Amino acid sequence: MNYNRLYEKFQELFGKGATLFVSPGRVNLIGEHTDYNGGFVLPAAIDKVIAVAIKPNDTNRIRAYSLDLSDAAEFDLSEKPNKQWASYIYGVVAEIGKKGLTIGGFDCVFGGNVPLGAGLSSSAALESVFAYALNELYQLGLSRFDMAKIGQAAEHNAVGVRCGIMDQFASVFGQKGHLIQLDCRSLEYELVPFDPKGYRLVLLDTQVKHSLASSEYNVRRAECEAGVSTVKKRYPDVQLLRDVTLEMLDEFQAELPESTYRRCRYVIEENLRLLTATAALKASDYVTFGKMMYGSHEGLSTQYNVSCAELDFLVDIARKCNVLGARMMGGGFGGCTINLVSDEAYDAFIQEAKTLYKQSFGREPRVYEVHISDGSRQLKLD
Ligand code: ADP
Ligand code: MG
Predict the structure, then answer these.
(1) Interior/surface letters 3-31, b for 16+ CB within 10 angstroms, e for the rest
(2) Residues 234 and 162 both lie in one domain
(3) pLDDT one digit per residue (tens) for the chain, 382 residues
(4) What pLDDT does 380 receive?
(5) Domain CATH code at residue 245
(6) The CA-based dihedral angle spanning residues 93, 376, 185, 216, taken in that order and rounded to the nearest 10 degrees
């Protein structure tokens, strides 16, 4: 990430005196489709970020320039812009306003290296960096938790994507060398050390997004709710699948449609896998951690049915190349696999994945090596 370019562009457009802030994209090591069931997720901030050079301009207007899109936008603090990328900035400003806090207009240039739409949450990075920057510039007194909530609300209200809190949470709270075990029901979190010496984290982007993704997402949510309402008949305290044990679910196996049973079973097992995985991390047992990643993929593919040929193919190659752990990441039907690979296995794995994927699907997967990094922060240029 070339921060000097950002700073120079700001000087060219708006003059001197900008402050620089960054917020990262994120990965999720394990815990997929658990968030809306009140379960756990295990994300981390990565070393791919969105950065902004920003300065108050003593007006009521926002003048913004997107370095990556070479596009400018200018709009009033209270005016929804029509450019999509600008609506993320507006969304954050609007949510700050809803809290009764006052800010002024500002000039800014932003850009980054989080790939757009690849499932690394460039959108959360964008929201978080503005929430963080505006909090600092105007001394708003927001907590990191407030900033994550503001980013999520901006995505709901200004962009129209009803996302959970994980992405913004990871972007704002991330810490180098740590994963974040987030309880999606209570929003309590715990930092878990992650320092697999001799291993690398790499994402392989299938570069496909099958159109099933959003319709099947809604079907899965409905299947989980159907499972809960059946279990509730005899266990009235149950609110979410988080409250259901495997033993409880099995009591209802005969009553539930086969597919609903399998979906619910996946979610309960995925939560257990995540807890096994974090316990393993605390004991520096990365072998068990890797097994849980493969188990997650297996469940997503065969029980929850949200994988696709491209994702399964890349995880199979990982297995054959002695990758320690691999699974699809994100909602499914495309996007990336996440792989924990030893230094020795790395080059052969990447080569094999590129060659074989191209033979079967006509193009190479994109490769993103990532490092676990700090969350939102101010940057000092030397
Ligand atoms: P992701 O999985 O990366 O979060 P989204 O579709 O949620 O994908 O968000 C991508 C959108 O966020 C882009 O279409 C764009 O509007 C905005 N965005 C993200 N990164 C940038 C950037 N570097 N420059 C301009 N806009 C960006
Ligand atoms: Mg997004």
Answers:
(1) beebbebbeeebeeebbbbbbbbbbbbbb
(2) no
(3) 889 999 999 999 999 999 999 999 999 999 999 999 999 999 999 999 999 999 999 999 999 999 999 999 999 999 999 999 999 999 999 999 999 999 999 999 999 999 999 999 999 999 999 999 999 999 999 999 999 999 999 999 999 998 899 999 999 999 999 999 999 999 999 999 999 999 999 999 999 999 888 899 999 999 999 999 999 999 999 999 999 999 999 999 999 999 999 999 999 999 999 999 999 999 999 999 999 999 999 999 999 999 999 999 999 999 999 999 999 999 999 999 999 999 999 999 999 999 999 999 999 999 999 999 999 999 987 6
(4) 87
(5) 3.30.70.890
(6) 80
Q: Which atom of ligand 1 is nearest to the CA of 116?
A: 3
Distance between Cα 94 and ligand 1 center (Å): 19
Q: Whose C-alpha lies nearest to ligand 1, atom 17?
A: 85
Residues 203 and 323 in one domain: yes
| 185 and 269 fall within a common domain | no
**What ligand has the least distance to the C-alpha of 87?**
1
State the Cα–Cα distance between residues 11 and 35, nearest whole angstrom: 42
Task: Provide the number of structural domains found in the chain.
Answer: 2
Pocket (CB within 6 angstroms of ligand 1): 50, 66, 68-69, 84-85, 88, 111-112, 116-123, 126
Q: Is 11 helix (H, G, I), strand (E, B) or coil?
A: helix
Ligand whose nearest atom lies closest to the CA of 89:
1
The whole-angstrom separation of Cα 145 and Cα 126 is: 16
Indicate if 290 and 366 belong to the same structural domain: yes
- Whether 136 and 258 map to the same domain: the answer is no
Which of 197, 199, 195 lies closest to 372, judged by CA? 195
- Same domain? For 163 and 242 the reply is no
**Could you give the CA distance from residue 340 to residue 380 in angstroms, rounded to a whole number?**
32
CATH of residue 185 = 3.30.230.10
For residues 76 and 209, membership in a common domain is answered with no
Q: Are residues 231 and 276 in the same domain?
A: yes
Check the CA dihedral 242-243-245-246 and report its sign: negative
Nearest atom in ligand 1 to 113's CA: 23
Q: Is 159 helix (H, G, I), strand (E, B) or coil?
A: helix
Q: Which domain holds residue 312?
A: 199-370
Please state the atom number of ligand 1 nearest to the C-alpha of residue 112.
23
Query: For the whole model, what pTM was predicted?
Result: 0.97
Annotated catalytic residues are: 167
What is the distance in A from the centroid of ligand 2 to the CA of 343? 30
